[in-house]
Specification:
Blueprint: H1 2-48, E1 51-58, E2 64-71, E3 84-89, E4 92-96, H2 99-102, E5 108-113, E6 124-130, E7 138-145, E8 151-158
């Protein structure tokens, strides 16, 4: 009879331990799989996003600089106004704020989707960088960074 009671108690203890382990491990596995799915989506988005700076130009007084950037990826790019744009003379460039973030200060940038209504694959966006005074001649650096971290950069001359 003692063996039967001991066996029954060990079985009950084993079941309780199994339930405890399951209730502890299952939520962690579930959170881990959600994190993996989220990370996979982000990696997929980054792999499908590609841009290329295709041309730069400026007005005669150099108060306005135009940078055309083409979506050469396979997915639509959302949040163009959330992009980061870096611009300035070689070795002396800064992040230029978007026009709504800049307020009345310069430099600032704005954009226009050139050949569509959204920045879909094969569509070009014209970034317009505005100054209140001539930034000068020389070699300039421009870098556009998408909200997901994909970027392209280029050097060009302003004379």
């Amino acid at each position: 009879m003692d063996k039967a009671i001991t066996t029954a108690l060990l079985i009950i203890a084993g079941i309780i331990c199994t339930i405890f382990v399951f209730n502890t491990v299952y939520p962690m596995v579930n959170r881990s799989s959600s994190a993996m799915v989220s990370m996979t989506d982000q990696i997929d988005n980054r792999m499908k996003s590609r841009i290329s700076i295709v041309h730069e130009a400026h007005t005669a007084d150099r108060l306005t600089v135009y940078v055309w950037v083409k979506n050469v990826g396979t997915t639509r790019i959302d949040g163009v106004d959330d992009c980061d744009l870096f611009f300035g003379q070689e070795g002396n460039f800064n992040r230029v704020p978007y026009v709504t973030d800049a307020g009345s200060s310069y430099p600032r940038w704005d954009y226009e989707v050139e050949n569509d209504t959204e920045w879909k694959p094969n569509v070009t966006v014209k970034f317009t960088i505005s100054y209140d005074s001539d930034p000068g001649t020389g070699t300039y650096f421009v870098k556009v960074v998408l909200p997901n971290g994909i970027d392209d950069e280029d050097f060009f001359s302003m004379s």
